[in-house]
From TrEMBL:
Species whose genome carries this gene: Pseudoalteromonas agarivorans
Domain CASTOR ACT: 58-119
Domain of life: Bacteria
Signal peptide from the UniProt entry: none
Record protein name field: ACT domain-containing protein
InterPro entries in alphabetical order: ACT-like_dom_sf (IPR045865), CASTOR_ACT_dom (IPR027795), CASTOR_mTORC1 (IPR051719), UCP008459 (IPR016540)
Pfam families: ACT_7 (PF13840)
SUPFAM superfamilies according to UniProt: ACT-like
Length: 129
């Protein structure tokens, strides 16, 4: 199987931790890119850094590497392979999966290093402007 194509998005993202019963800002739902996760223990929101959210903690300055999809549910090892390449390059990640694809978030200051490591491993990279 050939390596996937990844697209580095230019939008800076922040990862927010909220009280588990916090209200989700309605304006968030109008943004072109956001992710919401909730369990019985936590509520997390990933969204563009320019969008202010009242939260417990924020981890700013992430960029998203999107695995260009859609990806079939029968495909295996995609995240394991990509995260393995980045782990060998000592790059921390935050991963998110959607119905159609996967996103690997890397800190902005490691994005170029991530691109180089992935290209060296045979991945195709497209960079947003």
């Amino acid at each position: 199987m050939s390596k996937q194509t990844l697209q580095l998005h230019s939008t800076l993202l922040s990862i927010h931790s909220l009280e588990v019963d916090a209200d989700i800002p309605v304006a968030l739902l109008k943004l072109p890119l956001f992710f919401i996760s909730k369990t019985h223990d936590e509520l997390s929101i990933v969204c563009p850094s320019h969008f202010a959210i009242e939260c417990l903690d924020t981890e700013p300055d992430w960029q998203a590497l999107e695995v260009v999809g859609p990806l079939g549910f029968s495909l295996t090892g995609i995240m394991a392979n990509i995260s393995g390449v980045l782990a060998k390059a000592n790059i921390s990640i935050f991963s998110i999966s959607t119905y159609d694809t996967d996103y690997i978030l890397v800190k902005k200051h490691t994005a170029q290093q991530a691109i180089t490591a992935l290209k060296n491993d045979g991945y195709n990279l497209v960079v947003d402007q």
